[in-house]
Design goal:
Layout lengths: L4 E4 L4 H12 L5 E4 L7 H11 L26 H10 L8 E3 L5 E2 L18 E2 L6 E2 L5 E2 L3
Parallel strand pairs: 1-2
Antiparallel strand pairs: 1-3, 3-4, 5-6, 6-7
């Protein structure tokens, strides 16, 4: 059984790149498509706490009802913001990766390299082709 879990949105390029980097390290993570299977309150609050980020920092704005709901207003408590994320899972920013070395919101995707238990096995190119990752996890420009 894998020791890595990724809260993943397959429609998101950053999430797909992060998943590919995990797999490139030889790990097959537990993939939670959180839009289909949203976390419960306890799990979501645990994820937020484990990232060390503020609740609002773990929320996604682009392509979500964030602005429509007025979630920028400081009147909303962390508990209320969690309620909104539970009602609208698209508000949960992604991908959140949970390996043995610490939970992290992997934006940009290469942040995952710092928390993987194993190094990359081979060079890796991101989907957009703008940059790649070599076997030691260093950025390289595509040729």
């Amino acid at each position: 059984m894998s020791t890595i879990t990724i809260f993943h949105n397959p429609a998101c390029g950053t999430s797909r790149n992060t998943l590919a980097m995990i797999r490139s390290s030889g790990e097959e993570p537990i993939v939670v498509e959180y839009l289909k299977t949203p976390p419960d309150r306890e799990t979501l609050k645990g994820l937020i706490a484990a990232t060390g980020m503020a609740t609002r920092e773990v929320m996604r704005r682009k392509g979500t009802p964030y602005d429509e709901l007025g979630l920028d207003d400081p009147k909303w408590t962390d508990e209320q913001l969690v309620d909104f994320m539970l009602q609208h899972p698209i508000l949960i920013n992604r991908p959140i990766v949970v390996p043995p070395l610490g939970t992290l919101l992997c934006r940009p995707s290469e942040l995952v390299l710092g928390i993987l238990p194993n190094p990359q096995r081979a060079a890796f190119a991101k989907e957009d082709g703008e940059q790649g990752i070599d076997a030691e996890g260093r950025r390289v420009e595509p040729q």
